[in-house]
């Protein structure tokens, strides 16, 4: 059976898979709140990896690059709910409740925590909309998003520094960022946004920093890492080519031969 990814209402997505599934890179421009109903999700990000286990709530800050692997439970089910906390809704909520945040959140970028009774009950209350026994109207969707915000703030008041920080990303160190995130196969536009730049400014700064275009540098960087993994770690290309941002094996093999003048098998 194929995996399902279904939008319950415009900001709530229900994901269900029936076998181990490797997710592609995703760029999250908005905060999102998620709940692991069954199975577990292995999340890979620039700071390492995290496992989201069953009955765990996850709050992820906006502007993140994430790759996932989804593992069904012993019963064969994988179920995950995610709710987008979009900036427009958060700004309106902050205005109505006179919330002003001057300093951003200084903790870790990824936040994983066990749900309290209220948050757990909240996600369980969404079951009728997943099962199609109730219809999620736009007004109800808005109320459920606001309820999620209320419950998050109740569970940890410091979350206001995450949710209501509306400052634009500032320019960050381009060389450091790219060396930590080169393996994510996302458009240049996403890299630009994450580093606090317009696309034109990103390309200009990139050229000054690396003396080449972004796509050329990414290809070379990924191939050099592949060479290291094969030569010194004895890994097979089939085991890592996706993790390094290559779309398929044939593309990897041809690029590798073109750069190093030999095939991966000739290296041994």
Automatic annotation (TrEMBL):
Coiled coil ranges: none
Organism whose genome encodes this protein: Chitinophaga eiseniae
Protein name: Helix-turn-helix transcriptional regulator
All residue ranges annotated as the HTH araC/xylS-type domain in the record: 172-268
UniProtKB keywords: DNA-binding, Transcription, Transcription regulation
Example GO molecular function: sequence-specific DNA binding
InterPro entries for this protein: AraC_XylS_family_regulators, ExsA-like_N, Homeodomain-like_sf, HTH_AraC
Cytoplasm recorded as keyword: no
PANTHER family attached to this UniProt entry: HTH-TYPE TRANSCRIPTIONAL ACTIVATOR RHAS-RELATED
Listed transmembrane segments: none
């Amino acid at each position: 059976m194929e995996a399902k990814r279904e939008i319950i209402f415009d900001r709530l997505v229900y994901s269900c898979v029936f076998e181990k599934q490797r997710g592609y890179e995703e760029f999250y421009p908005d905060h999102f709140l998620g709940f692991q109903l069954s199975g577990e999700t292995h999340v890979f990000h620039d700071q390492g990896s995290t496992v989201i286990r069953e009955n765990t709530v996850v709050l992820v800050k906006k502007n993140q690059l994430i790759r996932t692997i989804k593992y069904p439970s012993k019963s064969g089910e994988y179920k995950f709910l995610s709710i987008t906390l979009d900036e427009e809704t958060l700004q309106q909520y902050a205005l109505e409740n006179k919330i002003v945040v001057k300093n951003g959140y200084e903790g870790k970028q990824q936040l994983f925590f066990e749900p309290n009774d209220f948050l757990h009950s909240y996600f369980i209350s969404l079951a009728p909309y997943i099962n199609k026994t109730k219809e999620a109207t736009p007004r109800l969707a808005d109320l459920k998003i606001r309820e999620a915000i209320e419950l998050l703030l109740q569970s940890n008041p410091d979350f206001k520094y995450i949710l209501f920080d509306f400052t634009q990303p500032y320019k960050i160190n381009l060389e450091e960022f790219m060396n930590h995130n080169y393996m994510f196969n996302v458009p240049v536009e996403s890299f630009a946004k994450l580093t606090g730049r317009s696309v034109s400014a990103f390309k200009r700064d990139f050229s000054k920093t690396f003396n080449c275009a972004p796509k050329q540098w990414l290809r070379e960087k990924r191939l050099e890492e592949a060479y290291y993994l094969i030569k010194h770690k004895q890994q097979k290309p089939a085991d890592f080519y996706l993790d390094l941002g290559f779309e398929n094996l044939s593309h990897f093999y041809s690029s590798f031969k073109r750069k190093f003048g030999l095939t991966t098998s000739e290296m041994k």
